[in-house]
């Protein structure tokens, strides 16, 4: 009897060449093969009479080879093999393209299950390149066929051979269940070996569903155990303790009463930084929820405790804007603030660097420029990364390295469900701003098509006449892909359509100083309309803007559109958002209508995640989590929540998983690269 630790090389029918390919897929042992789950299934349980298959079907028939397969050379690079099969209901031609082997494999007079696509009607009807396996004509048995993700050169038959051997080895003593029994009972999760058999060789699709549920749970549970462990371990580190020396004055200086969500988040921050351990907290809140207030509170705590704070923003525009908000606020509290960006002139830069180095600048706002070599802080005690999803873990770390285990606050306006945030942002604690400042009216949103264009221009004119301002966002800077509006071109059009209105243009290819100039003019009300690319997506705050128009909105992601919409509705006046693009097909219409139906960023993020998948959603993988084989973070949210709770509960009772050696081994295996997480 084979053992699970045996090499795939020992499997009969797997030669050294195949074995090398399998190893290239990460399959070294039979156990590895068990964890190479199928990515899909083909249901071949329904066997259809050949007379009933129709053009476009993917069907499974049980039929006898009637005419011997004939291989014909059609032209260079094109061979065709033709045969006819039959069952009690009729006959069906079968054709293979460029397959030299089938003619030798299919025996005339023998019965096979053929599975493949049918095309054509009447006399032209045929099955194209079906897969086949022998069967007994009078007792045909269809099956659910697993579809594996395969490297080039590896066939499904190879994978079936290896997984068959692995499942046989599983029949022996190998692989006891590592999930604690009470947990399995509580969630109705079948036993491990049973699930592994079912996921690879299901008899029904219901088998797959049940097995998958358990295997997803186990994967998420292992992930959460590792995350909880990392979080705990960091709690053991020592950091600087900031005392509350003046938050009361901060609240007074703010100029408006904080929302209760802001109060709560600031209180969480205050507790973190007073604890003597380094804070690592994510503040998450929909656009306009007022995250900057939380960042400001941390900066004040740091400064009043004799430390410097650094706030890093992803764009120059945003950094400048944060500086504009923070400098006066901090000034009222007698604290100093400096700005450092890449586009500053040499003299200004030198001065800023000197202030940072001497400690005269208590709070420093900037862009990536903050992490450059020449920047030295005197005593950096707190770091804020705004719009966290724009930064990599490495950039955050580089900023932190300029201090000694500073407190870290990251802020994200990409509202994702809390449980998912816990996972994607790794070992961070999370504060949620689930409330908008009072007096905000929801932005009225309309998804429109081309025939509304003139009316929208009139509406834009009216908003300007009422004293408001408008953003117009285009997908491109200049003319490129046909049919898409470019910002440059569209600015010209609007200058003609809205005579007398001051139309500005802003895009990513402009020099930073130019960009700042245009943005400042718009903020000051010296421009009525700002045509731009998505450079204004994050953070920009001009409360007087009441209209957002997005051209070719179908080209943007849902969360991105929601971010853009968040640029308006920041003042007391009713604001509007117009998405062009409903006339670009069913899918576009559905997506844009979803946005007009809801302004709940969490709901939108969930829909976005479901459509695009988490990898795409967050850009490059920057969170450094172990890869998941089966779980889908968006689709398996409920299980994720349970896994998170259970992992926390188990580790609270048994911090190094004492008494659960099998489970611990599995957590260590999954988290291999993250180092020794139980020490
Ligand atoms: P975001 O969470 O999108 O970063 P900001 O911090 O930029 O939001 O805040 C958006 C706007 O709301 C700013 O103009 C800010 O001054 C204002 N604001 C924030 N908190 C409050 C509040 N509690 N009451 C009134 N206005 C607020
Ligand atoms: Mg912000």
Q: How would you describe the overall organization of this protein?
A:
This protein is α/β, with parallel strands linked by helices and 679 residues long. The radius of gyration is 31 Å and the shape is globular. Helix 4 runs antiparallel to helix 6 and helix 6 packs across helix 7. It contains 23 helices and 20 strands. Strand 12 (380-385), helix 13 and strand 13 form a beta-alpha-beta unit. Among the domains are: 1-40 and 150-174, DNA polymerase, domain 1, CATH 1.10.150; 46-142, Nucleic acid-binding proteins (OB fold (Dihydrolipoamide Acetyltransferase, E2P), Beta Barrel); 248-275 and 290-412, Rossmann fold (3-Layer(aba) Sandwich), CATH 3.40.50.300; 444-598, 3-Layer(aba) Sandwich (Rossmann fold). The protein has a 7-stranded parallel sheet, with helices on both faces. Bound molecules: adenosine-5'-diphosphate and magnesium ion. Magnesium ion binds next to helix 10.
